[in-house]
Amino acid sequence: xxxxxxxxxxxxxxxxxxxxxxxxxxxxxxxxxxxxxxxxxxxxxxxxxxxxxxxxxxxxxxxxxxxxxxxxxxxxxxxxxxxxxxxxxxxxxxxxxxxxxxxxxxxxxxxxxxxxxxxxxxxxxxxxxxxxxxxxxxxxxxxxxxxxxxxxxxxxxxxxxxxxxxxxxxxxxxxxxxxxxxxxxxxxxxxxxxxxxxxxxxxxxxxxxxxxxxxxxxxxxxxxxxxxxxxxxxxxxxxxxxxxxxxxxxxxxxxxxxxxxxxxxxxxxxxxxxxxxxxxxxxxxxxxxxxxxxxxxxxxxxxxxxxxxxxxxxxxxxxxxxxxxxxxx
Amino acid sequence: xxxxxxxxxxxxxxxxxxxxxxxxxxxxxxxxxxxxxxxxxxxxxxxxxxxxxxxxxxxxxxxxxxxxxxxxxxxxxxxxxxxxxxxxxxxxxxxxxxxxxxxxxxxxxxxxxxxxxxxxxxxxxxxxxxxxxxxxxxxxxxxxxxxxxxxxxxxxxxxxxxxxxxxxxxxxxxxxxxxxxxxxxxxxxxxxxxxxxxxxxxxxxxxxxxxxxxxxxxxxxxxxxxxxxxxxxxxxxxxxxxxxxxxxxxxxxxxxxxxxxxxxxxxxxxxxxxxxxxxxxxxxxxxxxxxxxxxxxxxxxxxxxxxxxxxxx
Lengths: 329, 313
Fold this sequence. Notes:
The complex is a heterodimer of chains A (329) and B (313). Chain A has helices spanning 2-12, 32-72, 76-80, 90-105, 107-137, 144-153, 159-172, 182-190, 197-209, 212-220, 225-236, 238-254, 257-262, 271-274, 293-313, 315-324, and strands spanning 281-284, 288-291. Chain A has 329 residues and is an all-alpha fold. In chain A, strands 1-2 form a two-stranded antiparallel sheet. In chain A, helix 5 packs across helix 9, helix 5 crosses helix 12 (238-254) and helix 12 (238-254) packs across helix 16 (315-324). Chain B is built from 13 helices and no strands. Mean pLDDT of chain B is 86; it is low at 252-258.
């Protein structure tokens, strides 16, 4: 590819390799100085436009985050009048909104559920992923490549194909239904997501890059496959494993459809389903109901901010890991 | 030596094979089977033979109860918005716009030095959020008396249950989907851009090629593997839009307000599984899921065919 492209340029204008650079000026009536000056001006204008474009884009991208936080600092009447920021009693508003939201949603309990499900799923996922990525990258057995291709092809299938039958499976296993206990609810949320073809794929790519010599050296030292996997390969693949961990936690945090479908015991429900429930409506005069959007925004802040903190701490790993999937080709 | 590992390899694979057997391969077959079952009941597993009627019902060709003349037009309809038309519309609006926008933003970020990391981080932030939570934020922003209307000095009932038009709800939904879809695409394009050899650009500079021409003739072809990857995955993603609808308008399982004119294919599937008649309706959900699967297969196939001619490796 590289050759093809440089050929394309060479065909048009053969470049003479000399110690001196010849500047080609298509419009001959322009002097070199003028041309350079024009280039400079054009460059600066281009930069200004680029920065303006990016700044406007960044503002639009960031605005929902800003407004979510600003709204959680407002009184309901302020939010209802479309203000950009709270203009009075900020401290009182914050106290009121956050204490009401915490109490009404039983927030800590549901965040606890979310964390429990996320951490358990991720831990089991890592274990299963490490074992299978090792088998697919290091060991040889009949049908290995075929099996891996079958695994990969399942990534194209929409998740709803699985969801429908998994729901039935969960009912048959007596894990889902009206008399669901908290632990049954946790199991239904964890079990179907332990195996992830995408993470196996990521880790297998990483494992394959580890030179063969290391394996042979370990064999000479009398190490078993098992020891080699945990003492050599896993430490070497640590960056990928951290990436998988973070992506998996983000995934669990974002889950909605499956928990909403399968968890009937609301005590075990995770936060993203709970914030969409009706618990944030204010009932007044006994019968009238009002949706308190300030509380909704407070709940959003409380749900999103932990993830953003995670992102700020692990920015490098998240961005590198997420992009790795795209560079294959 | 290596062949001795044979049975051990299967031991390492045992957990994943067991889990995928139960939660991936079995459901795949089971869902297809259910989609062809007549009068299937989830709770008992009872059914009365095989039929194509579930597909007919989903596509609005067969009545739920024979002779009543009542057809389900929620999934597919020739006269108004349906789950299928909404999904196709969302896909064909948001995918091209977000791909082009992400490409332009990625090129812009790649062209600057000062504040590059800053912009990279800002534009990636929507990736690390909760789709439901931010959907609620968009809903508040686009309220009749919300901040968007007050900033622009208008009073458009964008999402109001009683006053909003189908078009305005669709507009906000697409906006939100694009906002959500950009960060991942920008990231992939940026990492692709940073892998491009600088000498191509130097060659173009010596040729005195204008910037836009350089981008069009060098950057885009060299990024074509990433563009293909992003297009395929975002087509699949857009076909499965669901969480954003719930976050934004939350009209699940309720006939209130605008009813179901913001159905998407996946929304339809979950509604069939969760509504009052879920026990009998799961067969329709299965049929709809299989239709979604086929649509995704066809689109992926077309894209891969097109890419054979266009992608430079």
